[in-house]
Amino acid sequence: CQAKEPYRTGYHFQPPKNWINDPNGPLIYKNVYHHFYQYNPHGVAWSPNIVWAHSTSNDLVNWIPHDDALNPSEPFDINGCWSGSATILPGEKPAIFYTGINSENEQVQNLAFPKNLSDPFLREWVKIPQNPLMIPTEANQINADSFRDPSTAWLGSDNRWRLVIGSKQNQTGLAILYMSEDFLHWTRVNHTFHSAKENGMWECPDFFPVSNSSPIGLDTSTNGPDVKHVLKVSLFDTAKEYYTIGTYNLDKDLYNPDKGSEESDLGLRYDYGKFYASKSFFDSAKNRRILWGWSNESSSANDDIKKGWSGLQTIPRTILLDESGKQLVQWPIEELEKLRTKQVRLPRIVIEGGSLHEVLGVTAAQADIEVTFEISDFEKTEVLDPSWTDPQILCSKKDASVYGGLGPFGLLVLASESLQEYTAVFYRIFKSHNNKYVVLMCSDQSRSSLNENNDKTTYGAFVDVDPVHEKLSLRSLIDHSIVESFGGEGKACITARVYPTLAVDGYTSLYTFNYGKEGVKITGSAWSMRTAKINRSRKEENE
Ligand code: DQQ
């Protein structure tokens, strides 16, 4: 039978009802993970007087809810508690910087501390009386509508704290640098930390170090010879995020992206689908950096009202610098694998061109599937037209129904019985004019639902894998209304939101497919995923 709530997820973070957006101030304290997020307690749409909701977890998978951490209450935040970040000060003292919308409707930056440090759940937060600590003024030429989302602060070797705030001037996106000796008095540094023209407002800047020598995460204040830095910004105008990898010049307090990784429409993205306002934090318990992102709905406002909620958090991902040094790689946190059950091994076969194979024995609406493709014959590879530079456009033109040479091959997820509905996550391989192979990864939502009110945009990314010498892998986390896919072992990620009308719960199937001319060998496994305990009431937990 069909569930009453076919789109509610089984293992993605979401509260029982209402609107959520950005993850805020993730942190670990006394071995407890804290997740704050933008939440509208009064409805399914965003509202400016938004609050910081709060949940905690021991494993980043199961979550318990707490009272809201920050609510509009003071002249410096009476019209809203917007996004911000946490910093762990020396002596293991967490601090939260957030943007308050003040009584004049200006964006100002405020500081809050836990009321009781002996409470590992940090249930109560106190806004300090000195707030606001950073304000937009005519003198500092900061626009009061474009001054928000303080980053985690880092400590320089001069013992001074720094943080960046998102802003814009005309259409130039800005990361404004502030500095402080005592964490209380902050001054704007005269030069801009980093900026890019024709970007519009930079929201939620995140600036952090990554190791270029070992696969570990680093505390935000770490610097040194084995360290590169990452700056991520969320572009308000396009609702897309871009990151660059670069060098942090300590003497000048400037960030310089490496050549070839400036923001542009073809720049590097954490995720080429629905993923925004992300935030990372250093998990000191496991020496890793974890990334949280918000996945907005692709359904209509009316459908959101019907289902009573809007917005999900994606599965936390560990992020590392790729061996090439040119990009990051992301992977779902290892703890998620605890939810895997009833493993189904895919028979090691060659899926011939034009064939479809059902993966039987998994709960296909709530599953995790990891497959590897091996290609031995490249003869029928199509030639890449040099004008095909935009992967998203290429994936929409050559969607899953367009037969090709080498590919499309991959997965049909959330598929209905007669394939009236399915979401296709797949690869196509092309040969470029310099005889290199180019791997395209697509998530095609065009047939995901018979409901025409959804945004069914198809997404795409090029994946830096050499299919001649390397295996090509694909992992998809399928969870009722979200499909998070990881290509090339996390080199390209695509998150899609879909709302099948037929392929719900027990009426859902999962397939591997190949609509190319060349056969492809496939290996891998699929798992049914258990339901995580996420923000459930005591009563529900006992059921
Ligand atoms: N969401 C927050 C802002 C931020 C935006 C408000 C990004 O602080 O800039 O809910 O989604």
From TrEMBL:
UniProt keyword annotation of Lipid biosynthesis present: no
GO cellular component, one term: vacuole
Enzyme class: hydrolase
Highest taxon, organism lineage: Eukaryota
Family annotation (Gene3D superfamilies): Exo-inulinase, domain 1 (2.60.120.560), Glycosyl hydrolase domain, family 43 (2.115.10.20)
Keywords from the named record: Glycosidase, Hydrolase, Signal, Vacuole
EC number: 3.2.1.26
The Glycosyl hydrolase family 32 N-terminal domain, residue ranges: 12-332
Compartments where found: Vacuole
Protein name (database record): Putative beta-fructofuranosidase
Organism name: Rosa chinensis
